[in-house]
Design brief:
Blueprint lengths: L6 E4 L2 E4 L4 H5 L7 H10 L13 H12 L27 H17 L3 H8 L22 H15 L2
Antiparallel strand pairs: 1-2
Amino acid sequence: MSETKEVVRIARTGLDGTKTISKALRGLKGVGDMYANAVSENLGYEQGKRLGELSEEEIDEIEEYLKNPEELELPEWLRNRRKDRDTGEDGHLIESDLELKEEFDIRRLKEIESYKGWRHKIGLPVRGQKTKSSFRSEGKIGVSRARLQEEASAGGGEDEE
C-alpha cells in the first residue's frame, strides 16, 4: 500500500489527506456534500479511499473535473451557478472564482440600488431575518456598564465644586 500524504493541494487549497475523498473535497469553498459525493462516484473511486492515497495524476483529474463539471455530465441542479446572468449557462465555481463572482453580484445590487443592495450597504441582513435581537455586532446598542461607571466617576468630581 502506498504512503498516505497528510496534505493534498487542490485548487490552491490544502486539504486533509487522511479523510476520504468526498469528505476532504468538502473543505473547498463551493463544494458541498452532494457535489463532492457525485464527483468521487463519477470518477469511480470506492467510498473508503483516502485522498492522500491518490497519485498526482488522479489528484489533477479531480481538480480538472471540479473546475469543469460539464465533462462529468452532472445534473444542472448540483451546480452552484445556474443560469448565469451574463452567459445564461449553468456552471460551477470554486474557491477564489466563487468569491470574486459573489463580490461582483453584491456590487451590482448596490449599484442598481435594489432592496438587497441597500441592505448590503448598511450592513443589515438581506434575506428577511428579524433584527430585534440579532445582527448587533457593529456597534453596541443599549447601555454599557463600563461607560456608566466612567461617566459616574468623571461626573462625580465635577459636581462637588
